[in-house]
Write a structure and sequence with these properties.
By secondary structure, this protein is of the alpha/beta class. The protein folds into three domains: about 80 residues, Arc Repressor Mutant, subunit A, CATH 1.10.10.10; about 100 residues, Periplasmic binding protein-like II (D-Maltodextrin-Binding Protein, domain 2), CATH 3.40.190.10; about 100 residues, D-Maltodextrin-Binding Protein, domain 2. Helix 1 crosses helix 3, helix 1 crosses helix 4 and helix 5 packs across helix 11. InterPro entries: LysR_HTH_N, LysR_subst-bd, WH-like_DNA-bd_sf, WH_DNA-bd_sf. GO terms for molecular function: DNA binding; DNA-binding transcription factor activity.
Length: about 300
């Protein structure tokens, strides 16, 4: 079994068509078919079913594809790591970001890291919370930031940043006559909320807050990104929600952020990491994250 077998298998598995896979790999179809037969013979299983309806992965093929994808990620990380070492870096931290982490906080943290430990290469990955948790368990990330403490077994989640929750209001809206907005009054208007799978942690904290009012919210639409929320709010479709640092980082003239009258309406950011012993580089990164919090 050779690495080319893995590449060929992934191409066919993703295309589900030997001709397109061969074209993508810049080879003829016959050597591709031979390589897949060699791989199946070596494994002792059938990976693909081919008939007049097309090409399909067998169950064994689906299982093999998941494992090969992990191998491919590990190889890509190895390439990246060796390039970083050649560039003079002495360590790498892979940090996942979920649920819209405030850019000011991350910017301050990265600036401190660059000042105190410039030889450590920090990589940021914007992913969903589900992807972050999976990546932390599979050693794809060293740590992450999210809006949820529900990390499950093997992951430590510590509260890090606590920010006021704000209402995002269209310009020229009647609520703008108030400096502080009672949540119950805001809920009398249509809302632009995030899809749970897109901003899972943010959605969970906001949902608990809305449930505490015993008022059924009128959801105009659900979105998957912060920019989509701003676009719908600026178009007058409804009101949105954001943490204070995130919304104040944007200069968006068609929307106006307003503080909620309830000072307990806040959004917590958590620092997530695997439960095993952290590396010295990660320990120092965590210490700087808490320094940013205490100095905010």
């Amino acid at each position: 079994m050779e690495l080319r077998h893995f590449r060929y298998f992934m191409a066919v598995a993703e295309e589900l068509h030997f001709g397109r896979a061969a074209e993508r790999l810049h080879i003829e179809q016959s050597p591709l078919s031979r390589a897949i037969k060699e791989l199946e013979s070596d494994l002792g299983v059938q990976l693909f079913e081919r008939d007049r309806h097309g090409t399909r992965l067998t169950w064994a093929g689906q299982v093999f594809l998941k494992d090969i994808q992990r191998v491919n990620l590990a190889l890509e990380q190895a390439r990246t790591n060796v390039r970083s070492a050649a560039s003079g870096y002495r360590g790498i931290l892979r940090i996942a970001l979920s649920d819209g982490v405030a850019p000011q906080r991350m910017g301050a943290l990265l600036a401190l890291c660059r000042k105190e430990e410039p030889e450590v290469d920090i990589r940021l990955f914007e992913v969903s919370l589900a992807q972050q948790l999976k990546g932390l368990r599979q050693d794809l990330y060293d740590a992450g930031f999210a809006r949820s403490s529900k990390a499950g077994e093997g992951i430590i989640a510590n509260a890090l940043w606590d920010d006021p929750l704000m209402i995002v209001i269209p310009a020229r809206h009647p609520l703008l006559s108030r400096k502080l907005i009672p949540l119950a009054e805001a809920l009398t208007f249509p809302l632009i909320l995030y899809r749970p799978e897109a901003y899972e942690g943010f959605h969970g904290q906001l949902d608990r807050l809305l449930q505490s009012t015993a008022i059924q919210p009128n959801v105009a639409t659900r979105v998957t990104t912060f920019n989509s929320m701003l676009a719908f709010v600026s178009g007058g479709y409804g009101l949105g929600f954001s943490s204070e640092p995130l919304i104040t980082a944007f200069n968006y003239p068609e929307v106006v952020p307003r503080a909620l009258a309830d000072e307990s309406a806040r959004m917590t950011t958590y620092f997530l990491r695997p439960a095993e012993q952290a590396s010295p580089e990660l320990e120092r990164f965590m210490a700087r994250a808490y320094d940013i919090t205490s100095n905010a």
